[in-house]
Design goal:
The chain has 168 residues and is an all-alpha fold. The chain has helices at residues 2-16, 33-167.
Length: 168
């Protein structure tokens, strides 16, 4: 009896279940071999197109990566050139400062030259005139001394001649 009770329960469960077309596993019809070959050919063509497109995309990516590296390289060169420009600007400013200093020194030199000319005219020229006068005086004294020397020599000769004549 128990077995018949179990059968009744199973039958009740089956009856309680409603059967729907989705719940029934009906195998789909198998395509014929010629359709399979057509699908495979179509898929092969699509795969070939996708591979070609993928290679083109990879080539574009590589080209863009190369361009990006070139851009990075150019940016680095630009930064280096900017640093050089800054250095050159600094050097230019330093040279401009040195030129201003040279100009200042030239002005000072010109001022000193003017002062030197003023000193020469105010102090050196009178001293030169004084030295010229002293040189003329010295020349006059020399010529008088030569005359005096000549007179002394003449007197010595005269005395020596008198002493020689007195002795005879």
């Amino acid at each position: 009896m128990e077995s018949s009770g179990a059968e009744l329960q199973d039958n009740e469960i089956i009856e309680q279940r409603k059967v729907s077309p989705e719940s029934v596993n009906v195998p789909e019809p198998q395509p014929c071999p010629s359709d399979l070959h057509a699908v495979l050919r179509e898929m092969s063509v699509k795969l070939a197109v996708l591979q070609t497109e993928m290679k083109q995309v990879q080539t574009l990516n590589q080209e863009q990566a190369a361009k990006l590296r070139e851009v990075d390289k150019l940016k680095l060169q630009q930064q280096e050139q900017a640093a050089k420009v800054d250095t050159l600007k600094q050097q230019q400013q330093e040279q401009a400062a040195k030129l201003r200093e040279v100009d200042t020194l030239k002005l000072q030199q010109e001022e000193h030259a003017v002062k030197l000319r003023e000193l020469q005219t105010s102090e050196v020229d009178p001293i030169k005139d004084q030295l010229r006068g002293q040189a003329a005086e010295i020349n006059s004294i020399k010529s008088r001394m030569n005359v005096t020397e000549n007179q002394v020599e003449s007197l010595r000769r005269d005395r020596a001649g008198e002493a020689f004549t007195d002795a005879f």
